[in-house]
Amino acid sequence: MKTIKKVLIANRGEIALRIMRTAKEMGIKTVAIYSEADRNALHVRYADEAVCVGPPPSGQSYLLGNKIIDICKRLNVDAIHPGYGFLSENADFCRNVREAGIIFIGPSPESIELMGDKLSSKHTVARYNIPMVPGTSDAVTDRKDAKIKSREIGYPVLIKASAGGGGKGMRVVENEEEFDEQMDRAVSEAIASFGNGSVFIEKYITSPKHIEIQVLGDQHGNIVHLFERECSVQRRHQKVVEEAPSAVLTPEIREAMGKCAVEVAKACNYYGAGTVEFIVDEDLKFYFLEMNTRLQVEHPVTEQITGIDLVKEMIRIAEGQVLSFSQSDLQIQGHSIEIRVCAEDPENNFLPDVGTLQTYIRPQGNGVRVDDCMEPGMTMPIYYDPMIAKLITYGKTREEAIAKMIRAIDEYQITGIQTTLQFCKFVMQHEAFISGKFDTRFISLYFSPEVLSPQPNDQEELLAAALAGMLIKDKKPVVHSDTSLSSNGGKSKWRNRIER
Ligand code: ADP
Ligand code: ADP
Ligand code: MG
Questions:
Q1: Would you say the CB of residue 165 lies under 6 angstroms from ligand 1?
Q2: Are residues 198 and 240 part of one domain?
Q3: What are the backbone angles phi and psi of residue 406, rounded to the nearest 5°?
């Protein structure tokens, strides 16, 4: 057991600030790192100490593991929290941190290695009774063989990069005629994004829900789950809206999925916070997808419904403490929803938008939490993730959480940058979302840019829009294409993002 007195957060933006807040509450000193683009960022000012690590591109700053370790030694830092993205799932970094005598607030390098690769994670859990999507258990290299296997599995199939993440390196194949083309695309995307062209094939579940289970384990073999998060509203296989609990799970399925997630964690001797992702079909049958060995973007909804600060638990676990609660101590209280407020233009195919936040006023009030790292006058750096904030609401019931979300979206004032706020309001008000009967096709089925235009009967809004139109620049022409499954037209929001 070692008490952490000073922690370095190897990250930026909202997650760096969120981690520092908990550290402060625990009486732990904080060290920020920053790139030249983030010199004036809030996370830098919030920290007790801050060190510049290099120029804006993450490869020259936030990803410089050895430089970050040197800073820790120089400043007598006991522990590193990697947040999500960047170095969080880098087993070599984790190992180097530990070899330098510094605590890595996360799992062991061995767990990261086993779960970081989708195929190796499937092999790891294969000994246990974990339901898996039908598919190849190894990488496919021979095309002829791959086609025979796909026929056996039954079209449509999904070609997936084993090293994949962030929804990249994934291609749906509807029939054998398009197999070669989609295979080429999947392999080249996998090489471009992950430097590893290994792909495998899975049955494509046609109306799937994405439901994941949060787990927490200590270094003494105790593992619990903190229930599910429903993350089916997705674009390009990336989450946009998340909630807990799911509107459709029965207590029995919840328990079965929870048990299964704990088994998966046990299979890789997991400790720390992790997420076991499942795909759930129309009959509520669930299948293991992958495990993410880090704090998840959407972790706040779990915190809201369980009353547990996941970062605090991660720190306690890293110190070697025993989990202070058991499964039976945990209960779901109320309902929580999170939306990702991104600097993207929903009326223009969600293209990332750049600019300066002229107005930035956060919503407040009962049941509203904003995790961000923004202030008026700030310019969105083009080098990183385009997420401006996470807006989270909490209510006694799902209806209440939705009502609070709509109210909070209306209160949120952002000008100078296009955001996904109105798009998220559309989701909250859509009958399919309200009923809970939606799957990962939600956006491709129901969304087109026109739905964001004011309706003719909204006289007041029309007038306001007309007035605003006189004041602001002309809108860009609306381009909409269905980006739900395979194509992202080379305009991925990962363009300038973190490489792992
Ligand atoms: P989740 O919401 O489940 O945590 P995301 O897919 O939104 O997962 O990814 C979370 C973070 O992990 C991203 O913001 C990004 O920083 C990082 N990440 C995940 N996959 C990739 C990838 N392929 N390339 C770069 N960063 C990634
Ligand atoms: P990543 O590492 O990119 O997060 P995942 O395996 O978690 O990869 O898949 C990301 C998303 O892609 C899922 O949330 C789901 O929407 C979709 N997906 C993955 N596998 C399947 C499948 N077999 N059938 C249908 N959709 C899938
Ligand atoms: Mg995933």
A1: yes
A2: no
A3: -65, -45
pLDDT recorded at residue 491: 33
Residue with tokens 């009030």: 365
- d(CA 69, ligand 1 centre) in Å: 23
170 lines ligand 1 (CB under 6 A): no
Unique residue bearing structure tokens 């306001």: 464
pLDDT score, position 490: 32
The pLDDT of residue 83: 98
Is 248 within 8 Å of 217 (Cβ atoms)? no
Instruction: Please give the full DSSP string across 318-336, using - where no structure is assigned.
Output: HHTPPPS--GGG----SEE
Q: What is the pLDDT of residue 460?
A: 65
Asked if residue 469 is part of any domain, the answer here is: no
Counted domains in the chain? 3
Q: Which amino acid is at 51?
A: V
Q: Which pLDDT belongs to residue 468?
A: 64
Nearest ligand, measured from the Cα of 121 = 2
The Cα-based distances of 93 to 126, 329, 362, 441 in angstroms read: 27, 35, 36, 37
pLDDT under 50 in the chain at which residues? 473-500
Half-sphere exposure of 314 (CA within 13 A, CB side): 29
Q: Residue 338 falls within a domain, yes or no?
A: yes
**269: its two tokens:** 């001797």
Catalytic annotation on 316?
no
In a domain? residue 460 = no
What's residue 476's pLDDT? 43
User: What is the pLDDT, as a whole number, of residue 168?
Assistant: 87
68 domain-assigned: yes
